[in-house]
Amino acid sequence: MSRTVFQGRFSHRARSLASILAISVKVLFRRMIGKPLVREWPISFEIGTLFWRAQFNRAFALKDIADGRAYLDSLITRTDMRPAVEIRPAGEGEPRGDWFIPSEQTSDITMLYFHGGGYTFYAGVTREFIALLAHWLGVRIFAPDYRLTPEHPHPAQLDDGLEAYRFLLRQGVDPSRLVVCGDSAGGHLTLMTLSKLRDAALPQPALAIGISPWTDTGLRGASQFGNDHYDLVQGYMTLQFSAWLKGEGQYENADLSPINQSFEGVAPIYIQAGGKEILVDMIREFAQTVQDQGGRIRLDVWEHMIHEFHGYGHEVAESSNALERIREAIAWATESDTREPFPAAAQTEIDQLIV
């Protein structure tokens, strides 16, 4: 079970509490009259989706971005898995960030994890998800606290990502035992970093994983606005995140979008997405683009899920299934002959692209 934690300014905490209570009542009433948002969703999932949509909308509406970040962190949920993971701040001489060390480390794999948040937020719920991931996979994770927009536009995040990768290599991490992963904007940074490793004369990791990755900083696909009704992030947010990432306009979408980069000869890529998230169309196009380039990629899409549905862990079947698929992908990339395709999922509800 998860528990709710309130923190920060009283006005933020009060508004967050009022929001989750109002949304809970609305969802319960709608379900009583047989009108759930998505029939396949558990009640807690629908409440969570609508609540976090409201939180993000409120954070965007605040004039001061620091205030928006504080509001987003005024209510977080914490799973029972959290006590099983030590969160250790990076030491002197290390890039700014945190180590997530599970109490039961079952693998020698090191994961470099780039957090999501549109390059603008590093929310408390994201840190909770990284802890959950470390526990679930039994691997140590280094999550750099890269510079955020709008204060620090591109290429600050890519520079920080490459430096974090170099740091792990200097620490003696074998690239064949290194996995790079990220969610949303962190998935964007994962893919951009992977593409730029050759230019930086750095070895490729064993695997790159994108969880609902942002693959085009412009307009692409009907779902970008067409799935606003279902998703917790909204189409207009992608355009604002893109503007903040570009800064004063030195860069075009083609410069900043993974879909416009080369992935020929890079490490295998495994991507997961939800069929009802705003980014699903651009994610599918990206997977096809990499395939056309001759890259090795696999995409799994859970039909009824939204952006970053993984955070529910054991509480939602699709979430636990997706996390297990990540475990299987890492095992495939680090323990088997990767010349063979990544095994197909047994669950028929997953839309699969095998490359």
TrEMBL record:
It comes from Paraburkholderia denitrificans. Gene3D superfamilies: alpha/beta hydrolase (3.40.50.1820). This is Alpha/beta hydrolase. The keyword 4Fe-4S does not apply. It comes from the Bacteria. Coiled coil: none annotated. Residues 111-310 form the Alpha/beta hydrolase fold-3 domain. Keywords: Hydrolase. The keyword Magnesium does not apply.
